[in-house]
């Protein structure tokens, strides 16, 4: 039998990114066999590291004719004086001032720099590994392409590595399409192995590091897993307002939203009818900061527009202080602190805040659309420098109509298992990097969350369990009616139950006004999901659907009825049982990456005394 010739295997072409006309590096580096060699591609990215290799000089062939120097360029006397020291000395004596002595022929013929190849490790943020790129000095000098952070857009041919190592493919450059140069003396990432703490001061550059890039990809996967879970379960994604006139929690620290403190405002915007003030001391402190900024900008001429704007800002602030001091003297015995802002003249004609939670607004949507969720920023003006505290955090808010506390706990349980499974399945490359560089237990922790059953205990049971611990002294006293500390929660999940724990039915004094009062009159229908390492990541509750009970609770806490009239309307007209929860995304990213500070897992962290850009 005659054997048939095997058909040629067609190598698939590298996939272009549709809107940038380049190939993402992950499509090249995802193949461990180097199967894309020989293809012409365009890649773009930033140089992470580099080295230079000098080319070996080409030895001329013996038969090659010697290079002839034109007599027009070099005279016989110059040849003689460059080779015979005695004649050179004689020529210096007799040449006088008019004759220019050339000491050596290589002064006449300037030497070109020796040819070399720059070997770059280029990353575009699409994956953990970098692509090795070879750039001949004839295309671009090493000093242009080698500095860390240089942006390159290069066309070339993929080939087998010239030097065997960890790379299975490299790019031989043929064209430099774009070159974004770097000032190494000022570029913050030019130093190697910078600690995460120092990177917080240059959050606009830190995604270029391998660690932060991996964290951002895991962050992205958690976001899409969140949408995937709720969309699969028939929830509708709706938006809730960031600016609100409602105190959503009833006792949390809030950011006030106002335009009344804008520079150069008139006298009639300061009155004594509302409940917020501004002190001369605060503005004087601001003047010191603005003066420092003007001094810094004055030292350089790099940004004259910024200097002019800073000077105008300082001028207006000085005018404001002068104006307030004059009014303070005019009104004997009345200080600036006691004067109030007239919010009827504000932008919204009322007092408004940045939202702390979207649960109340989301409930109004659930009472019409069924099961809904929202994903967005939430704000708390808590003056804390804790590793788990942010002024601006991203939160998933969930609300379900015709549901009770048990339903919300079931949903939260399934949701956490789903997204942890998605991370394990979809971010293996980044998790392997985390496993190697940050936390060796991260994979085991995620897989255990997926496979384990969450322990459900009441708040009262948790207190009793902690009281029975022998040989352990907690920093805070364990007593009913006080919030569990991070230390106490960690002990419950790490030492007592050794698994995720759901703690439910907390004392009513610890929870917001809108949660449902239990039959004992002391606890409310709430729950917290506590995970190992990071503590509480989900807070949930069943809402109070009984109008009279809700109004009594608001009176008890002294809340302003006008702020919450719209919420009470939901009880007056077609009230339904609803329950839901809020998930804080940043602690969950800590859980999936092994990092310890939430400021390292959000692109632009906002925290107490820190908002750099």
Automatic annotation (TrEMBL):
Q: Which InterPro entries match?
A: Aa-tRNA-synt_II, aa-tRNA-synth_II/BPL/LPL, Asn-tRNA-ligase
GO BP term, pick one: asparaginyl-tRNA aminoacylation
Q: Which Pfam family is one of those matched by this entry?
A: tRNA-synt_2
Q: Give, as one word, the top-level EC class.
A: ligase
Start and end residues of each Aminoacyl-tRNA synthetase class II (D/K/N) domain:
344-606
Q: Which UniProt keywords apply?
A: Aminoacyl-tRNA synthetase, ATP-binding, Ligase, Nucleotide-binding, Protein biosynthesis
Q: What is its EC number?
A: 6.1.1.22
Cellular component, GO annotation? mitochondrion
At the top level, the lineage of the source is Eukaryota
Molecular function via GO: asparagine-tRNA ligase activity; ATP binding
Q: Can you tell me which family this protein belongs to?
A: Belongs to the class-II aminoacyl-tRNA synthetase family.
The identity of this protein, by name, is: asparagine--tRNA ligase
């Amino acid at each position: 039998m005659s054997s048939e010739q095997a058909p040629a295997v067609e190598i698939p072409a590298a996939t272009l990114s549709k809107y940038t006309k380049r190939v993402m590096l992950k499509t090249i580096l995802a193949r461990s066999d180097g199967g894309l060699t020989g293809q012409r591609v365009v890649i773009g990215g930033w140089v992470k590291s580099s080295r230079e290799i000098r080319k070996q000089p080409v030895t001329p062939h013996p038969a090659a004719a010697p290079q002839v120097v034109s007599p027009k360029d070099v005279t016989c006397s110059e040849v003689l004086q460059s080779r015979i020291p005695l004649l050179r000395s004689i020529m210096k004596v007799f040449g006088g001032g008019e004759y220019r002595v050339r000491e050596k022929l290589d002064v006449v013929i300037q030497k070109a720099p020796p040819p070399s190849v720059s070997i770059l490790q280029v990353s575009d943020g699409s994956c953990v590994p970098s692509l090795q790129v070879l750039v001949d000095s004839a295309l671009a000098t090493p000093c242009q392409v080698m500095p860390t952070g240089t942006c390159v857009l290069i066309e070339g041919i993929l080939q087998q590595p010239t030097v065997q190592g960890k790379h299975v493919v490299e790019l031989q450059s043929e064209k430099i399409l774009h070159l974004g140069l770097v000032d190494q003396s000022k570029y913050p990432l030019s130093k190697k192995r910078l600690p995460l703490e120092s990177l917080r001061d240059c959050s606009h550059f830190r995604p270029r590091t391998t660690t932060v890039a991996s964290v951002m990809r895991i962050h992205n996967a958690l976001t899409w897993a969140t949408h995937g879970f709720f969309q699969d379960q028939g929830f509708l994604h709706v938006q809730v307002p960031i600016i609100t006139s409602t105190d959503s929690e009833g006792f949390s620290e809030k950011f006030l939203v106002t335009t009344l403190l804008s520079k150069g405002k008139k006298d009639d915007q300061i009155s004594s009818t509302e409940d917020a003030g501004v002190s001369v001391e605060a503005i004087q402190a601001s003047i010191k900061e603005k003066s420092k900024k003007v001094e810094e900008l004055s030292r350089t001429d790099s940004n004259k527009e910024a200097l002019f704007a800073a000077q105008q800002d300082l001028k207006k602030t000085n005018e404001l202080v002068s104006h307030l001091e004059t009014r303070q003297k005019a009104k004997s015995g009345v200080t600036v602190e006691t004067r109030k802002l007239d919010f009827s003249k504000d932008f919204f004609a009322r007092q408004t805040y940045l939202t702390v939670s979207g649960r109340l607004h989301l409930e109004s949507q659930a009472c019409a659309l069924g099961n809904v969720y929202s994903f967005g920023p939430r704000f708390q003006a808590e003056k804390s420098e804790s590793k788990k505290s942010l002024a601006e955090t991203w939160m998933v808010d969930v609300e379900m109509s015709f549901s009770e506390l048990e339903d919300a706990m079931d949903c939260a349980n399934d949701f956490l298992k789903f997204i942890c499974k998605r991370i394990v399945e979809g971010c293996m490359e980044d998790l392997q990097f985390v496993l190697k560089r940050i936390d060796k237990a991260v994979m085991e922790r995620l897989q255990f969350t997926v496979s384990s059953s969450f322990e459900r205990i009441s708040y009262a049971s948790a207190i009793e369990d902690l009281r029975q611990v022998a040989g352990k002294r907690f920093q805070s006293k364990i007593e009913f009616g006080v919030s569990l500390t991070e230390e106490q929660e960690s002990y419950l999940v790490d030492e007592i139950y050794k698994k995720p724990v759901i703690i439910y039915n907390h004392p009513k004094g610890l929870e917001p006004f809108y949660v449902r009062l239990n039959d004992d009159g002391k606890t409310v229908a709430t729950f917290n999901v506590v995970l190992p390492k990071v503590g509480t990541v989900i807070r949930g509750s069943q809402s109070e659907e009984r109008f009279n009970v809700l109004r009594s609770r608001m009176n008890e806490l002294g809340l302003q009825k006008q702020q919450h009239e719209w919420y009470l309307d939901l009880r007056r007209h077609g009230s339904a049982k609803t329950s839901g929860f809020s998930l804080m995304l940043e602690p969950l990213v800590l859980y999936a990456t092994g990092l310890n500070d939430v400021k390292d897992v959000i692109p632009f962290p906002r925290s107490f005394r820190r908002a750099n850009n």
